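hey can u check if this looks right to u? its 359 residues, i copy pasted from the old doc so theres a chance i mangled smth
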Amino acid sequence: MAQTTRTRLQPEIFDLPVEKMRAGWYTDAYFNHARDTLLRDERRPRVVMQIFQKEDAWLGGMDEAIAILKLCATDFDALEVHALFDGDRIEPYEPVMHIEGDYTAFAHLETPMLGTLARRTLITTNVVHVLEAANGKPIIFMPARHDHHRIQTGDGYAAYVAGQIVGAEIGVTTNEQASWWGGRSIGTVPHSLIASYGGDTVLASQKFAAWAPADMNVTVLVDFENDSVRTTLEVADALSDRLWGVRLDTSEALIDRSLWDELGDFTPTGVNERLVWKVRDALDEHGYERLRIVVSGGFTAEKIRYFEDKGVPVDAYGVGSSLIRGSNDFTGDIVITDGKPSAKVGRGYRESPRLELVA
């Protein structure tokens, strides 16, 4: 029997709504009805359930799914559970978890377990694709504003797992996203602060730098007036050594002022390769070779890959809503009941030597 060789997050870290989960509040009604039927009939079938999905992916949410079982099953110690680890590469239909025991002990947990694995695997896989496209450059995980606040914690951890898979830096923008792995949030001088100082990017940046802790990498958005080259140089002159970098975030509906005389042979809107080169050349010409350029606004794995293939001088990418789009659905099948095959037609028990015993 396999022995666990890698560590897992402790169940308590997930702050689960244990009593509601035990009561089936987060479970599709038909699972609760099935469990209630079995209990009324005093039938406690010993089953093997295997959980899988149908894509090439990187697994996320496994420690959280295990926590649901450990804290909310009626008798976890009576179950035998084998599972893969967060960050494992998985193939279509490969079992990621194998649960054996009294079905009534965990029937009410199938829905939240599958949902957890689906969401976190989606995020982990999407972030891996973006990190691979970025060729090792840092990624800022920025989807917090695009979804409900209660999912930030696990999504942030899923992004962190992706960073561990690729061996690349991943930054998150809220403290909640960083809480499970002990990180901290990062952020730039935002448009709202610039607007609060009447649209004066330089003044807002100076005030921000005066407040910021000494170890903070001060990064400034420079597209507020849609004149990124001019604003970049003004901010660099004003902040000098206190400035770490600038962030380009031009709307995809606008053409930056520096490109108005260069239309014709490229797509001029938003953050495009010509704009990045304009800013980079201007910084270098004025002695600011050390300053970094961060880009954001509509970036996907495909757009990042295009930038990297073109050699666009980007130092870090901010990526938002594309990281939470898509689906990666999981299924739980009972494949053995009381020692006999019981899967529906087209399914069956699958051997999976990679699964490890969950203690």
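The chain has two domains: 11-122+327-357, 133-324.
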